[in-house]
From TrEMBL:
Species name: Mycolicibacterium poriferae
Name of the protein this chain belongs to: Acyl-CoA dehydrogenase
Record lineage: Bacteria, Bacillati, Actinomycetota, Actinomycetes, Mycobacteriales
PROSITE patterns in the record: THIOLASE_2
One Gene Ontology MF term: acyltransferase activity, transferring groups other than amino-acyl groups
Family, per entry: Belongs to the thiolase-like superfamily. Thiolase family.
């Protein structure tokens, strides 16, 4: 198999709900990062074999294969195809895994992976507004469980014994780290500003400076009257897009490009769909086994902060170093634009690796239905 690399990565700022990006159509927002990716790499989109695009709520603005219409919105040649992937919150991480597999196998040479979600315009759960998405056999198998991620987060907190204080302390940490990273300019190079009718949007909008566990303690539980999960220790509803340029390493060198990171391994696994959000634990074990890299060798872990118990349970089960976990903050502070989040996290992580000379980075995402992706990449010095 061919050595496969990420040559370039770019993202929009992550906009808060009804914030600076809320008036952008998902195809137009995608076009921003698609064109920025080509500009940064200095190549013509003519050589792109395919665009694999993550999106979760594929209704309304985001229906009818948003991946293909994003390519057209970008003004790229009509012969370039696009497809849309839905693996829930891991959609654009799965897009990267599909792109890498295609290049590694020799089926394609240059693939763009990424994703988009404009949750301000296509609300969370819009695709489930009618019908019975799970089916009577699934519901019967799991005791008519509602498959509500908030309830699953409550169950995880209960199983691992996380108090509300512990969850809120972790959430405050996310905001503190994100604010420090933003102030230090850690996100500047990876973000492409978006020009909207109201003016440019150039920075992540979700960070709440000065957040403390004490301030969060006043928020009401969102899913259970006596629960521990609330808006402040959950990921934010957000808008955003991100794109990654994937190709064989020898192809990149022949084009005069300097790769950022080598794709070492990807894994996807299922887990208990009632707990739902614990999949990153076995997915991490699986990807490390495939890569032959030990957890101690990994210098940064991006574990998506869907809810605070998710990275904390992962941390408890793996025994990882908390200092390496989401060092620039996570979705609690920076937002979670569903279909874009996998590519956003990878963009953030590989830039952090390059800035700090970190050899290995591991990214993992919990996903609706109890699945999870994990991806290991290696910095190319």
């Amino acid at each position: 198999m061919r050595d496969t690399v990420i040559v370039e990565a770019v993202r929009t700022p992550v906009g808060k709900r009804n914030g600076g990006l809320s008036d952008m159509h998902a195809a137009d927002l995608s076009a921003v990062v698609l064109n920025a990716l080509m500009e940064r790499a200095g190549i013509d989109p003519e050589i792109v074999d395919d665009v694999v695009w993550g999106c979760v709520s594929q209704v309304g603005d985001q229906s009818s294969n948003i991946g293909r219409y994003s390519v057209l919105a970008a003004g790229w040649p009509e012969h370039i195809p696009g497809t849309t992937v839905n693996r829930a919150c891991g959609s654009s991480q799965q897009a990267l895994d599909f792109a890498a597999a295609s290049v590694m196998s020799g089926q394609q040479d240059v693939v763009v992976a990424g994703g988009v979600e404009v949750m301000s315009r296509v609300p969370l759960g819009a695709a489930r507004s009618t019908g019975m998405p799970y089916g009577p056999r699934v519901l019967a198998r799991y005791g008519d469980f509602s498959f509500n991620q908030g309830i699953s987060a409550e169950l995880i907190a209960q199983k691992w014994g996380f108090s509300r204080t512990r969850l809120d302390e972790y959430s405050a940490r996310s905001h503190e780290l994100a604010a420090a990273a933003q102030d230090a300019g850690a996100f500047d190079a990876q973000i492409h500003p978006v020009l909207t009718d109201a003016g440019p949007v150039s920075a992540d909008e979700g960070i709440r400076r000065g957040t403390t566990a004490e301030k969060l303690s006043g928020l009401k539980p969102a899913f259970k009257e006596d629960g521990v999960i609330h808006a402040g220790n959950s990921s934010q509803i957000s808008d955003g897009a991100a794109a990654l340029l994937v190709m064989a390493e020898d192809n990149a060198l022949s084009l005069g490009l300097t790769p950022i990171a080598r794709y070492r391994a990807g894994a996807v696994t299922g887990a208990d769909p009632v707990l739902m959000l614990t999949g990153p634990i076995p997915a991490t074990e699986k990807v490390l086994h495939k890569s032959g890299v030990s957890l101690d060798e990994v210098g940064v872990y991006e574990v998506n902060e869907a809810f605070a118990p998710v990275p904390l349970a992962w941390l408890a089960e793996t025994g990882a170093d908390e200092a390496r976990l989401n060092p620039l903050g996570g979705a609690i502070a920076l937002g979670h634009p569903l279909g874009a989040s996998g590519a956003v996290l990878m963009t953030r992580m590989i830039n952090h690796m390059r800035d700090n000379n970190i050899r290995y980075g591991l990214q993992t995402m919990c996903e609706g239905g109890g699945t999870a992706n994990a991806t290991l990449v290696e910095l190319i010095a």
